[in-house]
Amino acid sequence: MLDALGYPFFQRALLAGLLVSLLSGLLSPFVVQRRLSFLGDGLAHAAFAGVALGLFLRGEPLWFALPFTFLVAMAITLVKEKTELSEDTAIGVFFALSVALGAVFLSKARGYVGDAMGYLFGSLLAVGPADLWAMALLLFLALFLLPLWGPLAYATFDRELALSDRVPVVLHDYLLSGFLAVSLVLAVKVVGIILVAAFLVIPGAAARLLSRTFAGLTLLSLLLASFSTVLGLFLSFLLDWPSGASIVLLQAALFGLAFVKIVFSVRK
Amino acid sequence: MLKMDYRYCVVALEVRDLSVRFGEFRALEGVSLKVPEGAFVAIVGPNGAGKSTLLKAVLGLVPFRGEVRVFGRSLTETDPLWFGYVPQIKTFDRSFPALSLELVATGLRRRWPFRLSPREREDALSALRRVGAEALAFRPLGWLSGGQLQRVYLARALIRRPRILLLDEPATGVDRVGEVDLYRYLEAYQEESGATVLMITHDWEAAHHASHVLVMNRRVVGFGPPERALTEECLRQAFGHLGHAHGLYLGGGHA
Fold first, then answer.
1. All structural domains of chain A with their residue ranges
2. Which of A191, B93, B96, B132 is deepest in the core (most CB within 10 A)?
3. Which of A84, A165, A266 to mutate to test binding with chain B, by most B CBs within 10 Å of its CB?
4. What is the DSSP letter of B14?
């Protein structure tokens, strides 16, 4: 299994996986507690439209997906803040718009459908040196997210209480959506568009089953996300499975174990 | 029960011509009042009278027209730590993994604590002890009953030693013994700190023991000492009719 470490493509995939798993592990508790799982799906489809646009224009798909997904995230948050529509309705609108745009772009990008498959399910071969730099830069930016953990958690617990203490809740909503969009796009190469939303949900969901405090939930989510990513990538190499599927299957197994533990501890 | 005296001639809260609209609905219209420091104001009125909206306007939680001044300062010039707020409906996410002690600590930090320092921990425990809820310190919030939650929220409000306490039906879900305890804790805090208290209540006994009563129905119907504000005329104006409980009080009987 350790032979894999000798291959530069695997080293890049491993490093990229670790970087994005740290970020998704940090964001996952907020996704779970704020019930944003559907936002992850919506943004994944926005990433699909962006990737399709990139394939159509014969550019690097991620550089199109990044701003496109970011703009969709901002638009969803804007509609939620400025209207009485619920967030899932706003997501539903942009979800459909993104898929429709993606289908149009892909239909015009004949000959590149094979590339699109790599983006849909993730590939060990997909991570290039430029992607690593982008991920490292994002992780550096994510350091600025760390001081926001307390106010974000406070507003996640009780928005009105946080507002009464003059926490800039709305600004933080936009920041969280922006970070979710960017981290989701960067995780696409490792996990794939179809499974990237799960990548942002399952570590937090599994950790929630085992945690009594939000701090504990965050630490455990980070641990589960990075553990499942590293082990999932090795499995992907050994079994020749798509990397995204290996990682998410492992995360689902961890969630299953956490669930079993909860069921049995309740019975006692 | 609740202290009737107020110590200072300083105006703690001044509301001038306050109006709040939600779309076409006028929740508050032209509300003006001056609350002296150290007063205990019971706010009474029918459902939908804008009582909670008034407290939210004072906290800056809803957009309003008019003016709110706290100790002579506009809201933007005030320190959030001056206010201790206990909301009526606990809108928090019950699935959020949190211990009572952590919620109380947000009263000091104004953010969720990742880790409590020994000092914060001791302060939070002491605040819980003050409201008789020390035993709940390490219990997950999702496990608490309505009455227990009220105590924890009150501890959270008191830990910052606020100058103004804003309580939205704090006795909701609390049993009779707990209710008496609650008023005892408030009285003790007010006596010790000289804080001003605004409390929305449907408890006529509590209203009668406050230093001031604000009777409202989207606008001020009556404001002053209980014997002047809780009159038949004021209550008829606010409620449209006199209910059984109001009648009992006006007739001199205490329910």
1. 2-267
2. A191
3. A165
4. E
Q: Which residues, 6 or more positions from B235, have their beta carbon under 8 angstroms from its beta carbon?
A: B215, B242, B246, B250
- Tell me the backbone φ, ψ of residue B86, rounded to 5 degrees: -120, 105
Please indicate whether, in this complex, the C-beta atoms of A154 and B112 are within 8 angstroms of each other: yes
pTM of the model: 0.89
Specify the 3-state DSSP secondary structure of B166: strand
CA distance A262 to A260: 5
- Sketch out chain B's domains with CATH numbers: 11-92+168-250 (3.40.50.300)
Contacts of A146 in chain B (CB under 8 A): none
Q: A2-267 — its CATH code?
A: 1.10.3470.10
Contact predicate B220/B33, CB 8 Å:
yes
Phi, psi for B159 (deg, rounded to 5): -60, -30
- Amino acid residing at A72: V
Residues in chain A whose Cβ is within 8 Å of chain B: 33, 149-154, 156-161, 163-167, 208, 211-218
Express each pLDDT in B108-163 by its tens digit.
999 999 999 999 999 999 999 999 999 999 999 999 988 899 899 999 999 999 99
Q: How close does chain A come to B208, measured CA to CA in Å?
A: 29
